[in-house]
Write a structure and sequence with these properties.
Layout: H1 2-11, H2 13-24, H3 36-53, E1 56-61, E2 68-73, E3 81-87, E4 107-109, E5 112-114, H4 118-137, E6 144-150, H5 158-167, E7 175-178, E8 190-195, E9 197-206, E10 212-213, H6 214-217, H7 224-233, H8 256-263, H9 269-277, H10 290-295, E11 299-304, E12 317-318, E13 321-330, H11 336-350, E14 356-365, E15 368-369, H12 375-388, E16 393-397, H13 402-411, E17 415-417, E18 433-435, H14 436-453
Helix pairs in contact: 1-4, 1-14, 2-4, 4-14, 5-13, 12-14
C-alpha cells in the first residue's frame, strides 16, 4: 500500500499543484472584515476536497468568527487516531507594491510557487490532504484520522480554542500532526519540538477629553504619544532584555544536550544577518547565541502605534489618546496569565502623570516543548529519513502556534510539528513562497508517517 500511495502521489503531482494554486487564489485574509466571504469560500473549498477524497462527516463548524472545517475517517480498528491540523486563513499581503507578482495570483518561479499563504499554511495543509488522498486511492488509511482546520490562526485562534474547550470529548485521539513549521536548512529534515508562547496586547493612553491645539495647550496638556513612548522605552533595554519585574523568574533553560545539538546545526550568523534579517547588526540579550535568543528566551516587540496625525503636511495637534500594539513571546516556565498580569501592573507603575492607561489582552498562546521520545516523533524522524536520506535534526521555533498548547492542555496529546517551509520563504512578508520540491517531498513524508503510525 505504501508503494502504491507514493506512486499515486508522484503521478498526480501536476494536479496537486494546480489545486493548490486554486486554493491560493482565494483571498482568505482573516483579519480584514471585508474578506469574511473569502475566508468562508476557502473553508468550503477545503471541505469539498475532503469529501471528494472519501472522508466522512465533513462539515463547517461555526464559531463566533470564521468557521472550522472538520472531517474524519475512523475505519482502522485497533490503530491510533491522529488529529491533522492546519489553517486556511492568511495574513494581509501589505505592502502590495513590494510583490514581484500579485499576491493572490500564484506564479511559479525558480522552483517555487509565489503567493500569499503558499507556505503559511495553505501549501502545507494541502500536503496533508494529498497524503490522505494518495493513501485512500491506494487502499485504506492505515490509521484513524480526524481533520480539523481553522480560519483564525492568523488572528489568535480564539474560535478553535473555544471549540476545543467545549468539545474535547468529541475529538478523542492519540496525537496531533501540525504542518506549519520549516526545515532548518534546505534538504535538512527537521522536526520542531518547541514553540514559544505569546501574549498580544494593546496599550492605550488617554490624555485630554479631545484633541488640542499644540500652540495653545502645549506645555500644559499631557501628550499621550510622549507618555506612550516613555512606557515603551521602559519595557526593555536597548539590548532587548525585558525589564518587567519578575518576568524572567522561573524560566526553564534548554538542556545541555539541546544546546550542543543547536551548536552543531549549519548556522552562519553573518549570512543570517545579511540575508534573512537584513539589518546592519543583530541585537539581543548578551551571553546568548542567536538560536537561544530566538528559540529559548522571551522577547518583547512593538508592532504599531496607530493614532494622531499621519497625513501629508502638518497638523499641530496634541492627540487625546494613543495606542501601541505590543507582544511578548513566552518560553517554558512562563504562562500567559501571569505574564499579562505582570505587564499590566508594570505599565500602570511607569505611566507618567496626567494620563490614564488601559492595557488589553488581544490573544494568547502557551509555550510548548515536545518529548522527543514519544513514538509519533520517532515515526516522523523515520519518515523524513526515508524521503530525504538524512537523519532528522530537532529544533525549536521562535514563533507561536496557539492551538498546540490547547492540544496539550485540553486533549492531553503530543503534537508532531512536521513542516517543510524554508527560512527564506517570507511568510507574513511580500513575495511569500513555497519550494515546490518540498511540497512534493512533504506529501511523501506524510504518507510514510501515517503508514508507520499504523504499522
Amino acid at each position: 500500500m505504501l508503494d502504491a500511495a507514493l506512486a499515486y502521489a508522484q503521478h498526480n503531482q501536476p494536479n496537486a499543484l494546480e489545486e493548490l494554486m486554486a486554493f491560493l487564489r482565494i483571498q482568505s485574509i482573516s483579519t480584514l472584515p471585508e474578506h469574511a466571504a473569502d475566508v468562508r469560500a476557502a473553508a468550503e473549498f477545503l471541505a469539498a476536497k475532503l469529501r471528494q477524497i472519501g472522508l466522512e462527516c465533513v462539515r463547517l463548524i461555526e464559531t463566533d468568527g470564521h468557521p472550522l472545517v472538520y472531517a474524519e475517517h475512523l475505519h482502522a480498528p485497533g490503530k491510533p487516531t491522529l488529529l491533522l491540523y492546519g489553517h486556511y486563513d492568511v495574513q494581509p499581503p501589505d505592502p502590495v507594491h513590494e510583490w514581484i507578482s500579485p499576491p493572490f495570483e500564484p506564479e511559479e518561479r525558480n522552483g517555487n510557487i509565489y503567493a500569499r499563504g503558499a507556505v503559511d499554511d495553505k501549501g502545507q495543509l494541502w500536503m496533508q490532504v494529498r497524503a490522505l488522498e494518495s493513501l485512500l486511492a491506494s487502499g485504506v488509511l492505515p490509521v484513524n484520522v480526524r481533520v480539523l482546520a481553522e480560519g483564525e490562526e492568523e488572528v489568535g485562534g480564539e474560535g478553535i480554542a473555544n471549540y476545543l474547550a467545549k468539545h474535547s470529548a468529541d475529538l478523542a485521539c492519540n496525537a496531533a500532526l501540525v504542518c506549519d513549521t520549516e526545515l532548518f536548512a534546505p534538504n535538512l529534515p527537521t522536526l520542531c519540538v518547541g514553540l514559544r508562547g505569546m501574549i498580544y496586547t494593546e496599550i492605550e493612553v488617554h490624555g485630554a477629553r479631545t484633541d488640542l491645539h499644540s500652540g495653545m495647550y502645549g506645555g500644559v496638556a499631557p501628550n499621550p504619544f510622549i507618555a506612550l513612548a516613555h512606557i515603551i522605552a521602559h519595557l526593555r533595554d536597548q539590548d532587548g532584555t525585558i525589564l518587567i519585574p519578575g518576568l524572567l523568574d522561573g524560566i526553564k533553560q534548554p538542556t545541555k544536550a539541546e544546546l550542543l545539538a543547536w551548536q552543531a546545526l549549519p548556522f552562519d550568523e553573518e549570512h543570517y544577518r545579511e540575508t534573512e534579517v537584513g539589518s546592519i547588526k543583530l541585537i539581543g540579550e548578551p551571553g546568548y547565541s542567536v538560536l537561544e535568543r530566538t528559540w529559548a528566551r522571551p522577547t518583547l516587540d512593538v508592532h504599531g502605534m496607530p493614532g494622531g496625525f499621519t497625513g501629508t503636511g502638518a497638523k499641530t495637534v496634541i492627540p487625546s489618546h494613543a495606542v501601541a500594539k505590543v507582544s511578548l513571546r513566552l518560553v517554558p516556565g512562563m504562562n500567559t496569565k501571569d505574564t499579562f498580569t505582570r505587564l499590566q501592573q508594570y505599565v500602570a507603575q511607569i505611566t507618567p502623570p496626567g494620563v490614564t492607561v488601559d492595557t488589553r489582552l488581544i490573544h494568547s498562546g502557551e509555550p510548548v516543548v515536545v518529548d522527543t521520545e514519544n513514538s509519533y516523533v520517532r515515526a516522523a524522524t523515520i519518515a523524513m529519513r526515508e524521503v530525504f536520506g538524512r537523519d532528522t535534526v530537532f529544533v525549536r521555533g521562535g514563533g507561536s502556534i496557539p492551538v498546540v498548547g490547547d492540544f496539550t492542555r485540553l486533549l492531553q496529546i503530543p503534537t508532531v510539528l512536521m513542516g517543510f517551509g524554508l527560512p527564506d520563504d517570507n511568510l507574513h512578508a511580500p513575495n511569500e513562497k513555497f519550494c515546490i520540491a518540498n511540497f512534493y517531498r512533504g506529501t511523501d513524508c506524510l504518507i510514510h508517517f501515517l503508514t508507520l503510525c499504523g504499522a
